[in-house]
Amino acid sequence: MHICIARKARGTHRARAPIVMNPLQRAVALAALAALTACAKTINYTDPLGPRYAGVSEIEPEPEWTGPHVVAAAAADLPTPDSLRVVTFNVHYAEQMDLVNDLLHSSPMLRDADIIVLQEMNEDAAAGTAEALGMNYVYYPALLHPVPKKNFGNAILSRWPIVDDEKLILPSKSMTRGGQRVAVAATVVVGAERVRVLAVHLSTILEVWFTGQTYQVQSVLGAAKGYDKVIVAGDMNSHDNVGALFTGDTASETYDITDVTCWAGGAFWQNQQVMRVSVSNWPTTEEDIDRSADAMIRCFRAF
After folding, report:
1. 243 lies in some domain
2. Residue-wise pLDDT tens digits, 59-93
3. Phi, psi (5° rounding) for residue 225?
């Protein structure tokens, strides 16, 4: 199929010949148009205190309560379960929340969840889902997204009382839209236990590369320190690139070894820690490569 674009003649000038685009040219043009459209900038919410949206379910166990801390005291009298059912769901701009709510309510694998973590939510969707499921919730938008033209962020829903919460602004802004992701943290009282829940939606590697994802995960892990029981759930935007950051001793270790010979950054590839080296093509000589390799060996031997 070909596309013909006819240009209208103006004045005494002759009409230009139609522009004929073959399928490949058409695909390239559409891709370029999509890229230009996709790069509309976001509006980030950089205040760590908000915007914040939260609600307490009217469906609560007896006795009557007047606030979250009273509810927590009542919850402490309930038996502590042996396990929790945690559900995480990226709902794609919260476009079809009626279907999402029906699925969360009717699916044998998803219903009766203790904690639900939802990504790409807005404030109306968060409040509506919490009400539909009879759950407590807290929601912090990270930004105003240019595609749905609505707020965009993570929500935590819980059948158990939520007694405190905060917004964690993650490092590494998007290289395309300039968006800055956040994690939502909340303490949930489950019987006699307190569980810290972190709702996460990492940037994609196209936005911040592997190094940016690493910094974001390290920020989440830092926020989890000091809590005995922690749940980290969400959309990691990763195919096993960040999994190793959450396991093993390397997840919490950082090294500060300075050498000004060359620049290299840490990254993860196929679930392994690797070194990412930047090369400036033609200015880089063989002598530069040798000196850089020697510097890397020195840094390795330093620890």
Report:
1. no
2. 544 444 444 445 555 666 778 899 999 999 999 99
3. -65, 145
Question: Cα-Cα-Cα-Cα dihedral of 179, 183, 184, 186, to 10°?
Answer: -170
In a domain, 248, yes or no: no
Q: Specify the amino acid at residue 176.
A: T
Q: Per the structure, how many domains does the chain have? A: 3
**Token pair for residue 204?**
């994609």
Domain membership of residue 179 (yes or no) is yes
Q: What is the SS3 string spanning the chain?
A: CCEEECCCCCCCCCCCCCEEECHHHHHHHHHHHHHHHHCCCCEECCCCCCCCEEECCCCCCCCCCCCHHHHHHHHHCCCCCCCCCEEEEECCCCCCHHHHHHHHHHCCCCCCCCEEEEEEECHHHHHHHHHHHCCEEEEEEEEEECCCCEEEEEEEEECCCEEEEEEEECCCCCCCCCCCCEEEEEEEEECCEEEEEEEEECCCHHHHHHHHHHHHHHHHHHHHCCCCCEEEEEECCCCCCCHHHHCCHHHCCCCCCCCCCCCEEEEEECCEEEEEECCCCCCCCHHHHHHHHHHHHHHHHHC
* Cα 178 from Cα 172, distance rounded (Å): 9
* pLDDT (0 to 100) of residue 57: 74
pLDDT at 85: 95
Residue 210, helix vs strand vs coil: helix
For residue 145, being part of any structural domain is answered with: yes
**Domain range enclosing 285:** 264-302
In contact, 135 and 157? CB cutoff 8 Å? yes
Q: What is the pLDDT of residues 182-225, one digit of tens each?
A: 999 999 999 889 999 999 999 998 888 888 888 999 999 999 99
Alpha-carbon span 189 to 197, nearest angstrom: 11
Collapsing DSSP to helix, strand or coil, 56 comes out as coil
